[in-house]
Amino acid sequence: MLSLLPIELEEEVLSRVPVTCLRKLRSTCKKWNTLTKGESFCSLKRKQRKQGTATEVVMVLDCRVSLMSVHVGDLLNPTMERIGNLRAADGLKISNILHCEGFYLLCITTTQEKTELLLWNPPLGQARWIEPSKSHHEYEKYALGYGHDEEDTKVLRFVRVRQTTPRRPIIVTQNLCEFEVYSLKSNSWKVVDDIISPDWEIPHGHGCVSLKGNIYWYAHQEISVHYSGPIPKDNPDFLLSFDFKRERLGPRLPLPFNGCVIDTVTLSSVREEQLAVLFLTYDGAVGSVIKIWITNKIEPDQVSWGNLLLACVIERVTRPPWMMQHPLSFFVDEDNKVAVVLDRIRGRSHFAYVIGDNGYLKTLDLGQAMDITSFQLLCPYLPSSLQIP
Questions:
Q1: Is residue 328 within 8 Å of 266, Cβ to Cβ?
Q2: Per the structure, how many domains does the chain have?
């Protein structure tokens, strides 16, 4: 019997079970339930993941969360295969998902009346509802990170609104700035009141990324209310960070390019150590141009960028960046010098770009889009024994 095997061999056998089947497996044996939630078992899964030829990622399409196996080592035949579906709660209609280095997911469901937050650890099958501090605000954003260690999980809620009259004389009708931090340990929200009204804004549809517990966004300089022309192409853009240890914003950090309002910029983490940035700009002559860089060093108060990692031209396939309702989601396989980018073709079909060296590009069809307004997410999957208290 399996239960008579040495613990190490028992873990080896159970580690071959797909993560999507672990919930059923745990319900059959109390010992297996404990073993598959332990750090030794999760470390073994992480080791297998690093040694394997495939990369396991969490992918969200049409509000459905799936575990995927991505093979990009052979660029002649790259593939994405669904291992199985992950379910956080019955009947949960997900509006957005944030991830913290792959081990925690924050599921956000939003209606016109309210916002609901569900913290979820898929490998352990654990979930916990978080009560929002205030009623739903249409411009609110959330971010997930941690303080001094991974057990000090925190959620940031912030609202930045500046509305003006459409005609001169320009009058600011609403100028709202709110920052709040939720601590999982204390189960309470705290107002961050030392942040003055910022002179920057995060473009609509641009998300954030969690890296080493801190949060990073793409932002640009806020346009003066007295400026009457179009948004200038040389308007400064930069990275912003939020340090959960000190619960404060960091300084503006430079980017390896200079974008403008019609460009799309999105971020991703690499090996939970570095930050990758994807820059998508539209050239009417050739189509959309994608460029990707990775940092050499990244902290809340400093950054240095490496050379351009990947670049390619996508002709007549993707829509111009300003037509996108949600930012592109992507991950980078630095060892193989390959990136996988999620997108939709005119809202009808999900697909992924596989981008390689020397302008290599291949498109993988992921099927028809059932919900053309839903967001897409692609993030690394890291088995973790971190319990949700």
A1: yes
A2: 2
CB atoms within 10 A of CB 235: 15
> The tokens of 91 are what?
């009947």
- Residue 155 and residue 41 share a domain: no
Q: Are residues 30 and 134 in the same domain?
A: no
- Report if residue 98 sits inside a domain: yes
What pLDDT sits at residue 282? 76
Of residues 328 and 192, more confidence is placed in: 192
CB-based contact 352:363 (threshold 8 Å): yes
The string of DSSP codes covering 196-217 is PPPSEEPPTT--EEEETTEEEE
Contact 142, 98 (CB under 8 A): yes
Tokens linked to 279: 């820059």
The helix/strand/coil state of 388 is coil
User: Residue 223 falls within a domain, yes or no?
Assistant: yes
What span, in angstroms and rounded, lies between the C-alpha atoms of 243 and 259?
A: 25
Burial class of residue 277 (count of CB atoms within 10 Å of its CB; 0-12, 13-18, 19+): buried
Overall average pLDDT of the 318-340 stretch: 72
Q: Is residue 306 part of a domain?
A: yes
Q: Are residues 233 and 351 in the same domain?
A: yes
The answer on 29 and 105 residing in a single domain is: no
Amino acid residing at 78: P
Q: Are residue 14 and residue 84 in the same domain, yes or no?
A: no
pLDDT at 316: 47
